[in-house]
Amino acid sequence: MRRIAGIDEVGRGCIAGPVIAAAVIFAPGQDTAGFTDSKRLSAERRRVLASRIRSESLAWAVGRAEVSEIDRLNILRATHLAMCRAVAALPVSPDWIKVDGNRYPPLDCPGEAVIGGDASVAEIAAASILAKVFRDREMQVLDRLCPGYALGVHKGYPTRLHVDRLSSLGVSVSHRRSFGPVREVIDRSSAP
Known about the structure:
Layout: E1 4-10, E2 19-25, H1 43-56, E3 59-65, H2 67-73, H3 75-89, E4 96-100, E5 111-114, H4 117-120, H5 122-145, H6 151-154, H7 160-169, H8 180-190
Parallel strand pairs: 1-4, 4-5
Antiparallel strand pairs: 1-2, 2-3
Subcellular location: Cytoplasm
Function: Endonuclease that specifically degrades the RNA of RNA-DNA hybrids.
Catalytic activity: Endonucleolytic cleavage to 5'-phosphomonoester
């Protein structure tokens, strides 16, 4: 039986924190009911399904790219790096990979990019759930390490609250300096 890994990421559109990717290979005959795009699920449902993925799947792994890598490489290349790290961390090798989106990362395994795959391919949906749960936990930690920005609330996305706090508090170590709203704050603070 062919081992198919699904891959997805979370955090590309954020202005703070890492980008997190997950890879999931289902066990033969595993029940995949209820797996869909993580954005369509409540936080509690994602946690329940993530626990199920970790305990029932044949293999799963998480990869990441740090803020410094995002700023140095650009977000697409950093996302692909996180995906490659997730696949490299799998305890078993896949035979085929399905990646959410329209670009296939530079992986040594054959596969395909699937637009809307997080809503249509169970393995990709599971990866999106796992990545979201891991990144949300990470943002709770960053919220404690960088108080005042409400990172645990908006998860690093450029909401009005986040941009207001960024403007008033300045740039933290968790912020992506290459992203527009952060760059604007840096430019304003360095202007004469």
